[in-house]
């Protein structure tokens, strides 16, 4: 059959909209961390409750990523993207009206449901719009918006807005406006293509069973690896702001600057690590990323109140750790997916990682902080990253450029897999 020409303009437009939308997911999710010192005082909260509030969103996110991936494969992406973006934006705004721990807990859980449903549909839609050789880079750019806006701009904007608005309640209250605008633009400009039609060229392709995602070893390895990466970076994202104030004894303004390194480093890492993997391969990139993140975190945890050095080290930790999230939930999961189950595979890999790495791990870190001290939470994050380096050794290489280099030695069966992943 004749393959239609690739629409580069649509690829770029989709990447821009879904990237900014993903950034708003991160902004709403992490807005609470830099505001927590004020919330802690006004609502009588403690460190353990901070970990729980961060964790409940991660658990809900993970479970609904798994549940909604298959739905996105069946009904398409657009309805899920628009509905969930409106929902989590409104819920983030309502967090400003919370009166205590229980109301915050319920709102955060509901936000996790909406943001978890948004994740597999948006990554799959970006994959469908991208040329296969640019898949890693494009998915990396999209996912990089979460650390840039959620862990980079959120601490700065939150702490600066506190100088302008009456209190922290107002910072939450105005956070819904950008999401409403982006939801309208996604409805207007993003095409709704059934996954089966995009991947096979035949609208009426037979859909495989959901359990076929487990036929690939990379699904299992990527799931455990991303759990380790999320346990590292999400514990850091949740605990570093209060760690810098209470243990390192930085003032609030300096804390906001240092904590923003998680976002800016993660932003660079998400597209750089995934983009580099297009050239040197998914497996070596993952192993190097885990090792570098663990080493830099060790140096960070042994550094005193030196704002510049703390920023540089935290930037490096986030660059590699967040880059791993982009790599594992993006190109690795996409290339491991059976035909017609791209969103399902992305949802499972990122969902399990979110449930335990982004959900349970911050709760455990909150318990550690409450009973053993804030400094020990960084030891927990370090161990998670070190274990991830070992697990990543078991990945099977799937990068299209690397597969093309091996195509002369490939058997017909291997060539079939390579063709599905965009090599043909």
**Rg measurement, Å:** 20 Å
Series of H and E elements: HHHHHHHHHHHHHHHHH
Identify the CATH architecture: Up-down Bundle
**Could you give a short account of the major beta sheet?**
none
Mean pLDDT figure: 82
CATH superfamily: MFS general substrate transporter like domains
- Helix fraction by DSSP (H/I, runs of at least 4): over 70%
The shape is globular
Low-confidence runs (pLDDT<50, min 5 residues)? 194-204, 410-424
Number of strands: 0
Give the amount of beta strand, in percent.
Answer: under 5%
Q: What is the count of distinct domains? A: 1
In CATH terms, what is the fold-level topology? Answer: Growth Hormone, Chain: A
- The computed structural class is mainly alpha
CATH class: Mainly Alpha
Span of the ends, CA to CA: 13 Å
The helix count comes to: 17
Overview of the structural elements:
It is a single chain. The chain is mostly helical. It has a single domain, classed as Growth Hormone, Chain: A. 79% of the residues lie in helices and 0% in strands. It is built from 17 helices and no strands. The relative contact order is 0.17.
Quick gist of this model?
This protein is mostly helical. It contains 17 helices and no strands. It has a single domain (10-420), classed as Growth Hormone, Chain: A.
Can you tag this structure with a few keywords?
single chain; 424 residues; mainly alpha; Growth Hormone, Chain: A; 79% helix; disordered C terminus
């Amino acid at each position: 059959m004749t393959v239609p020409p690739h629409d580069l303009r649509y690829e770029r437009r989709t990447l821009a909209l879904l990237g900014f939308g993903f950034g708003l997911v991160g902004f709403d999710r992490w807005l609470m961390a830099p505001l927590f010192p004020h919330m802690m005082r006004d609502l009588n909260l403690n460190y353990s409750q901070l970990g729980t509030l961060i964790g409940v969103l991660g658990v809900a996110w993970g479970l609904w990523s798994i549940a909604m991936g298959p739905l996105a494969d069946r009904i398409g992406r657009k309805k899920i993207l628009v509905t969930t973006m409106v929902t989590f934006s409104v819920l983030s705004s309502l967090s400003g009206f919370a009166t205590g721990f229980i109301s915050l807990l319920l709102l955060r859980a509901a936000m996790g449901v909406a943001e978890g449903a948004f994740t597999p549909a948006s990554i799959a839609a970006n994959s469908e719009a991208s040329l296969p050789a640019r898949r890693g880079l494009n998915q990396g750019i999209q996912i990089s918006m979460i650390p840039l806006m959620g862990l980079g701009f959120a601490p700065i904007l939150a702490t600066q807005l506190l100088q302008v608005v009456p209190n922290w309640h107002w910072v939450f209250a105005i956070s819904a406006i950008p999401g409403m605008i982006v939801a309208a633009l996604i409805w207007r400009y993003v095409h709704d293509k059934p996954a089966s039609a995009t991947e096979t060229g035949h609208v009426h392709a037979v859909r495989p069973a959901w359990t076929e995602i487990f036929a690939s070893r990379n699904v299992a390895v990527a799931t455990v690896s991303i759990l380790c990466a999320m346990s590292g970076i999400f514990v850091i994202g949740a605990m570093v702001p209060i760690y810098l104030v209470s243990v390192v004894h930085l003032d609030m303004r300096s804390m906001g600057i240092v904590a923003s390194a998680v976002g800016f480093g993660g932003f660079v890492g998400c597209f750089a690590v995934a983009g580099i993997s297009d050239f040197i391969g998914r497996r070596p990139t993952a192993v190097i990323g885990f090792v570098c993140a663990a080493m830099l975190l060790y140096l960070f945890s042994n550094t005193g109140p030196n704002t510049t050095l703390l920023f540089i080290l935290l930037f490096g930790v986030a660059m590699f750790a967040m880059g791993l999230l982009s790599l594992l939930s993006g190109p690795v999961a996409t290339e491991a997916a059976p035909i017609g189950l791209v969103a399902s595979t992305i949802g499972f890999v990122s969902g399990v990682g979110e449930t335990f790495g982004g959900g349970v791990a911050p709760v455990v870190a909150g318990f550690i902080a409450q009973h053993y001290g804030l400094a020990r939470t960084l030891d927990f994050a370090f161990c998670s990253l070190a274990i991830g380096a070992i697990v990543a050794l078991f990945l099977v290489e799937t990068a299209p450029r690397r597969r093309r280099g091996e195509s002369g030695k490939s058997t017909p069966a291997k060539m079939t897999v390579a063709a599905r992943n965009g090599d043909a």
